[in-house]
Amino acid sequence: MPGRPGAPAGAEGASPDRPFVLHKWRAPAVLAIAGVAFAAGFWQFGAVAALGDVAKTFGHVTHGGSLAARVGLSGSTIGIGLAVIRLASMGGLPLAGLADRWGRRATVLGWCAGGLFITAGAALSPSYWWFVAIFALGRPMLSATNALAQVSAGELTASSDRSKAVALVAAGYAVGAGVTAIVYSLGRNTIGFRGIFAMAVLPLLALPLIARRVTEPDRFSRETLAERGEPVFGPVGALYRRRLGLVCVVAFAVSVITGPANSFVFVYAQNVRHVSGALTAAMVVIAAPTGLAGLLAGRWMADHLGRRPAVTVAMGGIAGFGVLLYSGSVPALFAGYALGALAGGVIAPPLGSMINEVFPTSVRASVSGWFTAAGVVGAVVGLVVFGAVADVRLSLAPVVTFLPVLPAAALLFALPESRGKEPEELAAG
Do 196 and 50 meet the contact criterion of CB atoms below 8 Å apart? Predict the structure, then answer.
């Protein structure tokens, strides 16, 4: 439906005689983008959900007391493998940046299809490092898909609906990730990790149906060709580089925490705490309503308290609950996972909205790519540090890894508060 973004006539290529065509957060175009995010989340998280089975298949489990003996591979080996997969997401930077030239719709659908196709090939992996290599090939496309889904949701909506639309897309990604974990946990003794990756063909077959509802945001389609970015490594003009640097440092800090907190959890549950598949699935199911509650709380906080304080509170929660998760007992595992989902839900609407709002349309996808790349570097650092410390003392790993990066949240307050504002209002810096 039509809506006024509150921009002066002619801003960012807007025609002076009509406002942008914007949508409600429950419009088919936004729901379709959430469906694409669901598909990307399903297989982005697959390596994490199946990691315990992968380690046992390609490693050597013994009756010793070390992490390597119980899991099959050392914490360092697992951490490096996960870091390689995460590092591959750096390729999402140029892929996402191409959307500033080629359009949101074509790129988000193309990268999603390519990523799903390659990820299905991980089912044929003959060794642990082959598994890492194949999964890493598809990772950049799925990372770009997730980043561009957030961009599209922000551009399709006005300020009053933006945090809701971003929350919906984040929920789609989270539900996709949760479905992977549940299906694998319940069927790991039957289908194993090869079966779960072969199932990537299912969302791939559904993608053409979803694509019918995916539309090009009016904010982008009314940009002139000269205003669009070049198809290179995410160009951002000098006017916005300070903002870009700030959001990249925040992305790095958040991912230092979420990278290992999310990536080690299933191998920890299954191979260290010896939680059954049914209980692991129950853990994920329990976390679903807390994650939804977090999204609703994050949406409310973003629209009433502001984007910056909401992100700050959520970062503290993610770190604290991550420490609880790995503190050494099954109840702490369940509580830390559920509360971590709550905090992860809180951070998605304000952070996603802010990234969309403080940059102009002409560079927004490139910024999203840089944000993803900074998150990749943070996750790699977190995984390597966490894995190395876990080889010595597992319960100490989250304390050493998560807590030192929390002061980076203060940098958020050097960015403009974008609550209640349209991107066009902040475009002049």
Answer: yes
Strand-pair partners of 21: 2
What is each CA distance from 201 to 105, 122, 397, 405, in whole angstroms? 21, 12, 37, 38
Cα–Cα dist 320/402, whole Å: 8
Report how far residue 325's alpha carbon sits from residue 320's, in angstroms, rounded to the nearest whole number.
9
- 0.85 exceeded by the pTM? no
Question: What span, in angstroms and rounded, lies between the C-alpha atoms of 209 and 281?
Answer: 29
Q: What are the E-state strand segments in 241-381?
A: none
Interatomic CA distance for residues 318 and 382, integer angstroms: 14
SS3 state at 157 = strand
- 264: helix, strand or coil: coil
Among 53, 71, 54, 52, residue whose Cα is nearest residue 62: 71
Q: How far apart (Å, rounded) are the C-alpha atoms in residues 333 and 329?
A: 6
Listed in sequence order, the DSSP H helices in 28-127 are 28-44, 46-49, 51-58, 67-71, 75-88, 92-97, 99-102, 104-120
The structure tokens listed for 256 are: 């230092």
pLDDT tens digits, 274-320: 888 778 878 888 888 998 899 999 999 999 999 999 999 999 999 99
